[in-house]
Amino acid sequence: MESPDVFIYDTTLRDGSQGENISFSVNEKLRIAHRLDEMGFHYIEGGWPGSNPKDAHFFETAKHQPLARSRLVAFGSTRKPGVKTDKCPNIRSLLDAGTDAIALFGKSWELHVTEILGTSLEENLELIADSITYFKQKDKEVIFEAEHFFDGYRANPAYALSTIRTALEAGAAWIALCDTNGGTMPHDLARIIRDAETVIPGEKLGIHTHNDCGLAVANTIAAVNEGVKMVQGTINGYGERCGNADLIPIIANLQLKMGLKCLPESSITQLTNLSYFVGEIANVRPLPFRPYVGHSAFAHKGGVHVSAVAKLSRAYEHIRPEQVGNRRRVLVSELSGKSNISYKAKELGVSLGNDEAMTAKIVREIKQLEEKGFQFDAADASLSVLMKKLTGAFREPFKLHSFTVTNIKTKDDPPLCQANIKISVDGKEELTAAEGNGPVNALDNALRKALTKFYPEIGGMQLVDFKVRITEGSQGTAARVKVLFDTRDEDEMWSTIGVSENIIEASWQALVDSIYYKLCKRNPEK
After folding, report:
1. Domain locations in the chain?
2. Global pTM value
């Protein structure tokens, strides 16, 4: 395989899992590892087998599910002070992991050597040399992680440089310079790397940064600009405290902006999918504003912007969203002009023709509704229904005659909610009731129960998120609220909105729009 310009080293399974509320099972780690392997990541750090049984189990399991393209790495520390290398439990666990590559972290900040590790500066160099030599004799590729290198350099440049020199002389294939506390500025990092390159050739250097100052990606790019050939990080920037360097924008920046080959071209178009894939396994809601791959990364709201993008996309987009597997989105709000409406109508399959008056009518209606608290940039499905109503393309699939919701609470029992609803479909009336664990759930159950015999396809709908927000809080509990529903079926997910001073009424609006959208999708004439 052709050698890349920059090697990508992923530590999501180890450093990423140290992030708050993130934990991967062995099977989940294997799924992520194989996904990264398919995309051509060069190194995948699987965990620290000497620190916990789960990571040891992962490496044991991975022996029977080998990677095809990537090199699996076991992570651990240099030998303990006063313990022979071949007798050190941490060293033995790394050997037992059975990987061809070993990542060894060692101290490069004298503060950590004397105050944390509790040994002398001289012995620390021996720990580094002995541990690397041991694994080289076992025919392992060794990546030395110079922990706290930049802080160590600022405290004692000569000693920090001596640690990485020792690692190189002992046979380390790579020396990763770590900004472990995440506090280094890009200009300082670049200057220190230039000094490190007087000791270590740039083609043997890696960079490992944390995001405590919001600079992990910038520092990584600065390091590559200084000649560093390996970048370390995690998918979505997961990691301890403020996280690690996010490999998603790093890879995109290196390959699309700087022309440096990292991954196969086909993998760059999968970056959005990869971000969501790992986020789903980590059970972390994706950030919409994430660079390149976020839901809002190529979203346009202002009318002037939309008009320009419709003519020439690069007028307001730094790349084509398809290059990273994302897509362009046009949002409709009180800031919208006719360009937004025309673009959005086409996207949603609503025919406006060349009717300028209809477009202007839709713009006015949306602005009036948004003044009341509606937010159509977050509710495409409600927007679709509204447009169809205003253009006459909507036929109401059912009529509501009435509903009641009752909430019964006794002292010791949980509340019981019951909804009664009366609707009609093509003149046929249906009266039904259902219970739920809350008023909205009971109303949802009753409406579905009443409609299923007429429209069995709604049985495939599933509510996946339900949000309530106060539009303006000065009225306290009498304030107007907006309710947002996210609903999905086997094909897609859609969002609807309702606004009212009555939370049940707002929920009803969002619920009905959700069903309207589903039925319009299956029956376009409605």
Report:
1. 7-282, 299-371, 399-522
2. 0.74
